[in-house]
């Protein structure tokens, strides 16, 4: 299978994101070794904040939050999921499954020997990150979520998501810069839109971005739903603090928030806030999310 690697020159002149990438190889039984990119900033002995992005973004999404975490004295690690950012990109869409993404990120996480981690996650960062938490609850100190969930196929009305899924397959260009901008009320500059386009020089690089909407479990029998139900059972016993910072303008993920509020004990008594914006809240209200996490940890 062809494994693509975005040329590094595509990442020149990325605004407000001068962090040097680190790389780690993760093993896949079918694909061999895949190079996973991540940034790792701040004191190596400081408490870790792990920032996990989703679809179709990359770690650049956290550029407004990372400086606040660093100024507060934390070590910040932000990976690029396989298929995104500077990480390797299998060209075959069939390579992208929910279970593979969890396995890749779990392998990477264990290789870094991370412990007492604060997970900050949005979109697929939560879909994957929460599975990691369920598999390794002792490695995480706390979790903060925005606009994400653990879909088990139990949401009655998924019309908005199906519209997005249909668009992701039908749109000829699937311009990732425009997509992030649409879901952010058009607030991005041209250089910021170009930064979201940078990982994808051509259509063949977008296999993961195209495939992700298709593998979200929206029915109880869809692949991934049963594994998420098992993870949910672990989270129902998860008493470590969980801070919810969902936005007021994201109809797709809002119904998923109910599970955490009603069934995860770690959410009880926490200073949850509502952020103001659409789906990619890191762009519109990221600084407030970061400040809330910092205050919450302290």
Report on the structure:
Helix 3 crosses helix 8. The termini are far apart. The longest helix is centred in the last third of the chain and has 17 residues, at 281-297. Strand 4 (48-52), helix 1 (66-71) and strand 5 form a beta-alpha-beta unit. This protein has 298 residues and is an alpha/beta fold. It has one domain (3-297): 3-Layer(aba) Sandwich (Rossmann fold), CATH 3.40.50. Helices cover 33% and strands 16% of the residues. The strands form 2 sheets. A 7-stranded mixed sheet has the order 2-3-5-4-7-8-9, sandwiched between helices. It has a two-stranded antiparallel sheet with strand order 1-6. The chain contains 10 helices and 9 strands.
**CATH class wording:** Alpha Beta
Low-confidence segments, given as residue ranges, are none
Helix-strand makeup class: alpha/beta
Radius of gyration: 18 Å
Largest sheet features: 7 strands, mixed
Cα distance, first to last residue?
47 Å
Number of helices: 10
Write the layout of secondary structure elements.
Elements: E1 3-4, E2 22-28, E3 32-41, E4 48-52, H1 66-71, E5 75-79, E6 89-90, H2 98-111, E7 117-122, H3 124-135, E8 140-146, H4 159-170, H5 176-182, H6 190-197, H7 207-211, H8 225-235, E9 242-244, H9 257-263, H10 281-297
Parallel strand pairs: 4-5, 4-7, 7-8, 8-9
Antiparallel strand pairs: 1-6, 2-3, 3-5
């Amino acid at each position: 299978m062809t494994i693509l690697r975005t040329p590094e020159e595509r990442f020149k002149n990325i605004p407000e994101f001068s962090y040097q990438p680190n790389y780690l190889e993760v093993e896949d039984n079918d694909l061999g070794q895949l190079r996973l990119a991540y940034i790792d900033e701040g004191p190596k002995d400081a408490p870790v904040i792990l920032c996990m992005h989703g679809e179709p973004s990359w770690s650049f999404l956290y550029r407004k939050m990372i400086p606040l975490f660093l100024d507060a004295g934390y070590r910040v690690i932000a990976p690029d999921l396989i298929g995104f950012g500077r990480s390797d990109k299998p060209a075959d869409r069939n390579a992208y499954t929910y279970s593979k993404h969890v396995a890749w990120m779990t392998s990477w996480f264990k290789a870094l020997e991370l412990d007492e981690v604060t997970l900050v996650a949005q979109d697929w960062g939560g879909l994957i990150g929460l599975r990691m938490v369920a598999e390794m609850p002792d490695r995480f100190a706390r979790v903060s979520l925005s606009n994400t969930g653990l879909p088990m196929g139990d949401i009655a009305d998924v019309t908005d998501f199906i519209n997005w899924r249909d668009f992701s397959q039908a749109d000829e260009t699937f311009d990732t810069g425009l997509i992030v901008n649409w879901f952010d009320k058009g607030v991005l500059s041209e250089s910021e839109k170009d930064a979201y386009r940078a990982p994808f020089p051509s259509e063949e690089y977008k296999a993961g971005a195209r495939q992700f909407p298709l593998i979200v479990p929206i029915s109880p029998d869809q692949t991934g739903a049963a594994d998420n139900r098992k993870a949910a059972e672990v989270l129902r016993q998860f008493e470590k603090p969980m801070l919810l910072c969902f936005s007021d303008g994201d109809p797709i993920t809002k119904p998923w928030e109910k599970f955490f509020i009603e069934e995860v004990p770690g959410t009880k008594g926490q200073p949850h806030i509502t952020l103001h914006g659409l789906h990619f809240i890191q762009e519109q209200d990221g600084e407030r999310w970061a400040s809330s996490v910092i205050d919450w940890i302290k």
